[in-house]
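Task 17 of the worksheet. Students: predict the tertiary structure of the chain below and write it out as structure tokens. Keep your answer in the requested format; marks are given for formatting as well as content.
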Amino acid sequence: MLIVDEKVLPPTYKGRHYEVRAIGLRDFAGLARDDERLDPFALAEFAKLMVVGFDQIEGLSVEAREHLLGTGVDAWSGGTCSRPLPNGWRVVILNPRHGEQRNNATLMEEVCHVFLGHRANRLAIVAEGKKGRTAARDYNEADEEAAYAIGAAALVPFIALRHFVSKNKTVAEIARHFNVSRDLVEYRLKVSRLWPEYKARHGERNKSGNAAEIKT
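Model answer:
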């Protein structure tokens, strides 16, 4: 039976599975400390992913451009072209309106797809009606879950997250430290089973009126 050190890996089987792979990615990136910020753009080069600006896309209608540049939670955040360039690289396009923090998570997910050997989703126009063209793509739920979960764990490692919780760091402070969104930090707290401890600590903190930042 595998004995898990709860100080190193999350308590769930799936959490440990994803965390180990995230640790491998951070090691590959040359990070020496668990609280170091990971740069997805540096890893993208090793994955042969070329990030291009949205403005470089030609041939999009005004309607299509506005749809892709949505800012809601469920809006398109980015993706990788399924067809590689002649040199073997693939083009990645990110939604510039989502900001640096969300773009980091999106790009990290695309990097993980490559390192995990996932087949790129295909985007195709399948119909045209009164509201214009309708797009559909292949979607592998297991691949998407793994890529996002491992990417999130690589950006916000369990060891560092657990340490920050013990030091009463807020979600906002942790997000700033790793240059990710608050939503991603909350996701990591919940899947790592640290959310109850975080809520308990900050519930007591709010009752005492002590909202001062606590340095590590």
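Marker's comment: The CA atoms of residues 48 and 88 lie 7 Å apart. The beta strands are 49-52, 78-80, 90-94, 123-129, 132-137.
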